[in-house]
Amino acid sequence: MEKKLRPNPAKRSNKPNQESNLVYQIEDKLYVNLTDRCTLACSFCPKHNGCTEVKGYELYLAQRPQVEEIIRLLGDPSRFSEIVFCGFGEPTLRLQDLLQIARYVKQNGGKTRLNTDGLGNRVHKRDITSELASCIDALSISLNAQDEATYTRHCKPSLTNSYASVLDFIEAAASVIDDVAVSAISGLEGVDIEACRKLTEARGARFKPRYLDVVG
Hints:
- By secondary structure, the chain is α/β, with parallel strands linked by helices.
- It has one domain: TIM Barrel.
- The chain has seven helices and eleven strands.
- The protein has helices at 67-74, 95-107, 120-124, 129-133, 148-155, 162-174, 193-201, and strands spanning 23-26, 29-32, 53-54, 57-58, 82-85, 112-116, 138-142, 179-183, 185-186, 206-207, 210-211.
- Helix 1 packs parallel to helix 2 (95-107).
- It is globular, with a radius of gyration of 16 Å.
């Protein structure tokens, strides 16, 4: 039997009176903090190391935001270079809400990017990449490792066959979305960056290394 998806384990203990940020800006991009749930419990993720902030923004969610609330906060999305779905959890776990917000952005002149762990097909038990392609301009997918053992060690997936599912998702996404970037973290023990690059490029996507302890 598969494990249940993990809620956010972190607690807002250091700044109890600070409001959660449902959207937050970094440079000229606006980020959407859609959920606190995730299919992974990555050892390098700030929230699994007691941190609920990114770039000074409190991302702990007291409750999951409604679509209308996010849209109201976005306002005119064309003011930003991108609207990025990336927050405290995995956005594709709220797929229909994600698509609704992304369609709003596109209908109002904005550009969209989704940061994902690449397990959306595994979670929803179907290929969701064509749905994403209808309103997502760019995908950033976390591969994180060159083999299943290393992936399991660092990412601690709650679903079986997660690593193979990520590789399949990369290939499916690259066939329908022009801008698909895949990442792994340079400096993470046992991760072979060049092997990750080869796996990525063989599936038609481009590779972009990330760096340990650099977030946002």
